[in-house]
């Protein structure tokens, strides 16, 4: 197949940051995606309805420089859950249509998570209010217990944190984000329609060998960390299964190049520019191009209770590899674009509102 038409996709997990980084990265997402769930881990974090409104307005302002479909990009805002979150403010932000979801970061789990949750029981009253008001909870699913090996943190989170939350709040809609293990996708697929997960393009195409064999590749360092190949294969199987609970969240997470190529490098893969090309390759290799649209464009809106985009996208396959820039400018610095380490032949040929 040389051409594929699909509903224009959305990104259900995205970091846009703020200021100069926001202005540098927004176009990459807005060109290919109609909407994105925007992560609240700014410094300081997006804590209140007012913070979310102001951040949304800064994103919309930045959009005004763009043209065509990109100018119509719709940010779907989130609040950063802390032990001090005011449930009334949260519910009001949701009812006013300002936020679509709330994000749980276990304190210390990842970039800018210091204000996250230390004792999960302390936020149970907020989760209760969210269940009642039907607000989606997005989770960074890793424990931070120093005794737990970094490669096991997702599986242990499911056992220690997610399973009790599911029991206590059976009708709370939960997205286990950027799942990286067979344990994660198996858990989600064993649950009911209140439990979903997102998968990133990078966890579908690379595993820890790509990051660590023959030299350390800091641009592949992200959290949750890449796992062994068997897990990667389980993720591909899940992504291409068509299961309505599984959808795309790129976790595109820009950090300027020198902060990644560093003795203590930041976690995050900046993949927004080539996500659709990477995914088309993965789905084609799995003989599942017919399932791509469900993963990128249909399952997410269904879970969030939002309309499917009416706009379309055409992906086209060409003989010679598609050339993407290796970096994007970001003020005086650069952002290094995700290199999947294989030739990409699919590209977005047409995308319009
Ligand atoms: O690799 C990651 N980068 N994982 C996260 O959970 C956060 C993100 C970021 O904000 O840089
Ligand atoms: Zn993220």
Describe this structure in words.
The protein has 353 residues and is α/β, with parallel strands linked by helices. Helix content is 35%, strand content 18%. The strands form three sheets. Strands 2-3-4-5-6-7-8-9 form an eight-stranded parallel beta sheet. It has a three-stranded antiparallel beta sheet with strand order 1-10-13, covered by helices on one side. Strand 2, helix 1 and strand 3 form a beta-alpha-beta unit. Bound molecules: (4S)-2,6-dioxohexahydropyrimidine-4-carboxylic acid (DOR) and zinc ion (ZN). The site of zinc ion has 5 residues, from loops.
Strand line-up of the largest beta sheet: 2-3-4-5-6-7-8-9
CATH fold assignment: TIM Barrel
Q: How helix-rich are the residues, as a percent range?
A: 25-40%
- Number of helices in the DSSP assignment: 12
- Taken in chain order, the helices and strands follow as EEHEHEHEHEHEHEHHHEHHHEEEE
- Average pLDDT figure: 97
Q: What's the CATH H-level homologous superfamily?
A: Metal-dependent hydrolases
Question: What Rg do the Cα atoms give?
Answer: 19 Å
Count of individual domains: 1
Please state the overall shape, judged from the principal axes of the Cα atoms.
globular
């Amino acid at each position: 197949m040389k051409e594929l038409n699909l509903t224009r996709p959305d990104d259900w997990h995205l970091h846009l940051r703020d200021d100069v980084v926001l202005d540098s990265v927004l176009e990459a997402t807005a060109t290919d995606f109609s909407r994105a769930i925007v992560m609240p881990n700014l410094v300081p974090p997006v804590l209140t309805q007012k913070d979310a409104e102001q951040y949304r307005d800064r994103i919309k302002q930045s959009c005004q420089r763009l043209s065509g479909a990109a100018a119509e990009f719709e940010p779907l805002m989130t609040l950063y859950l802390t032990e001090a979150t005011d449930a009334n403010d949260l519910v009001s932000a949701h009812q006013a249509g300002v936020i679509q979801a709330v994000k749980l970061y276990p304190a210390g789990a990842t970039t800018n998570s210091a204000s996250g949750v230390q004792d999960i029981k302390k936020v149970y009253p907020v989760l209760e209010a969210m269940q009642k008001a039907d607000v989606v909870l997005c989770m960074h699913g890793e424990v931070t217990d120093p005794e737990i090996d970094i490669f096991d943190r997702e599986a242990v989170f499911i056992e220690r944190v997610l399973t009790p939350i599911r029991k206590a709040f059976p009708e709370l809609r939960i997205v286990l984000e950027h799942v990286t293990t067979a344990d994660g996708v198996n858990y989600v697929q064993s649950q009911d329609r209140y439990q979903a997960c997102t998968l990133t393009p990078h966890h579908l195409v690379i595993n820890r060998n790509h990051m660590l064999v023959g030299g350390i590749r800091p641009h592949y360092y992200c959290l949750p960390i890449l796992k062994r190949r068997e897990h990667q294969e389980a993720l591909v199987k899940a992504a291409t299964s068509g299961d309505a609970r599984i959808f795309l969240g790129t976790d595109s997470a820009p950090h300027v190049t020198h902060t990644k190529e560093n003795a203590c490098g930041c976690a995050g893969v900046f993949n927004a520019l080539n996500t659709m090309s990477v995914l088309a390759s993965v789905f084609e290799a799995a003989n599942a191009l017919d399932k791509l649209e469900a993963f990128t464009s249909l399952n997410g809106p269904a879970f969030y209770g939002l309309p499917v985009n009416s706009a379309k996208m055409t992906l086209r396959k060409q003989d010679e590899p598609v050339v993407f820039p290796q970096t994007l400018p970001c003020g005086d610095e650069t952002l290094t674009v995700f290199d999947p380490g294989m030739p990409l032949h699919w590209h977005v040929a047409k995308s319009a509102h």
